[in-house]
Amino acid sequence: MPPISAPAPILLFCKLLFINATPLLKTALDRFADIAIVKQMRRGIVFYSNSGKTVFMRAIWSGAIGFGLVNIPVKLFSAVESSSLDLDMLDKRNHANIRFERINAETGKPVKWEDIVKGYKYKNNYVMLTEEDFEKASPEKSKVIGIDEFVKIEDIDSVFYDSFYYVEPSKGGERAYALLREALKESGKAAIGTFVLRAREHLCMIRPFENIIILMKLRFAEELRSTKDITVPAKTSVKPAELKMALSLIQQLTPKKFNIDKYKDKYTASLLKIIQAKAKGKPVAKPKLTVVHGKAKDIMSQLKASIGRTKKAS
Predict the structure, then answer these.
(1) With helix as H, strand as E and coil as C, how does 106-154 read?
(2) For residues 233 and 239, is the Cβ–Cβ distance under 8 A?
(3) What is the pLDDT of residue 55?
(4) 235-246, pLDDT tens digit by residue?
(5) Contacts of 83 (CB under 8 A, 6+ apart)
(6) Both 75 and 162 in a single domain?
(7) How many domains, the chain?
(8) Do residues 26 and 18 lie in contact, with contact meaning Cβ atoms separated by under 8 Å?
(9) What pTM value is reported for the model?
């Protein structure tokens, strides 16, 4: 269900009221909005203010974590949001939005969402499935994330990592949630389990992050393709001197403490500047990019040049 926003006439009325309000009334309106947001944030409602649109996270799954004989009621929230620009597809002739429709392959007519069902083709015939059928396949995993074992976090290779979610305790589960969080922190381990989300069973890892618990979806081993068809050079093709020089370059580029906050989505920021310039009718110059290939033919000389450039930059 998408976020709900107030109708345009109501928003316009509120905006005019806010602009013409006295400072005392503005304070009252702000307070009223704060109260409304607190009451409605769990429903994923969108509120508009003079600072722009505010969207609150909406739970995508609710159930429980099975910790031994203790069931911890929880909700899952998506932990990631895209930093890319939301670009629309338009008809270049009149800049009208492109609309996609769900079309019946036989009649050629549009189909409403409420008339769409899911089916599986079995022996040339479709078997219709309902939400109850998905739950019947594994009712316990549809509502409970069962913990099967605990492992060291470093034992799970990052190639198995998929998307992750913030885990929040539901009412009545706060104490058990805190207990699991502190136990995971103290042990330095993560919980491995399975659950069903959106008609699919998922392997997952539950671990602490800052002051909360996060759930990381993991790929099953059979989902990773084999590397046997990838052609790579043999280990013996690396010269010891070149390896030593490569390790020196790695050491130079290794910070005392890694800070991921310094990495930003610069491409999106640059693209936004171009959009703003074009909106104002300003010409946008294309930057000149020249790819310069090193003159040195051997890897050793290139590594030495790289190390020298790194020293100058620092």
Answers:
(1) CCCCECCHHHCCEEEEECCEEEEECHHHHHHHCHHHHHEEEEEEEEEHH
(2) no
(3) 53
(4) 777 888 888 888
(5) 265, 268
(6) yes
(7) 3
(8) yes
(9) 0.65
